[in-house]
Amino acid sequence: MNILFSCAGRRNYLIRFFREALKGSAKVVAADMSLQAPAMVEADAAELVPEVYADDYIDRLLEICRKHDIKAVIPLNDLDLPVLSAARSRFLERGIVPIVSEPGVIDICFDKWKTVQFLRKIRLQTPKTYKSLDTALNAVEISELVFPLVVKPRWGSGSIGVEFVEDRKELELAYPLTLSKIQRSILNRASREDMEHAVLIQEKINGPEFGLDVVNDLSGQYVATITKQKLAMRAGETDKAVTVSNAELTNIGQTLGTALQHIANLDCDVFEKDGAYYVLELNPRFGGGYPFSQMAGANIPAAILCWLQQNQPDEQFFHFAVGRAFSKCDTLIEIPQ
Question: Distance (Å, rounded) from C-alpha 127 to C-alpha 319?
Answer without folding.
Answer: 30
